[in-house]
Here is the input.
Amino acid sequence: MSITTKDVEHVAKLARLQVNEADMEKLTGQLNAILKYAEKLNELDTEGIEPTSHPMPLSNVMREDEVRPSWPIESVLKNAPDEEDGQFKVPAVLE
Here is the structure.
């Protein structure tokens, strides 16, 4: 697969980038070099290798839920700019 100047022009237009002619040629060459390098992966023998989504096994490390006492409401509301009935009072966002 090869990228043409027209392809770079099209992508630049989609990305709303202004690219001059000199940079267009340079980008075309650079993108083709990237694709050529990526094509080297096709040379690898992957027979018998199971597909994976990640190179390392992943697992979630989560702590057990445990009931703990909450902070006293007075301490929580101490730095609140405004408070009403034990809750933070904020400006209305809906009319």
Q: What stands out?
A: The domain at 5-43 is CATH 1.10.20 (Histone, subunit A). The longest helix spans residues 21-39. The beta strands are 83-84, 87-88. The chain has three helices and two strands.
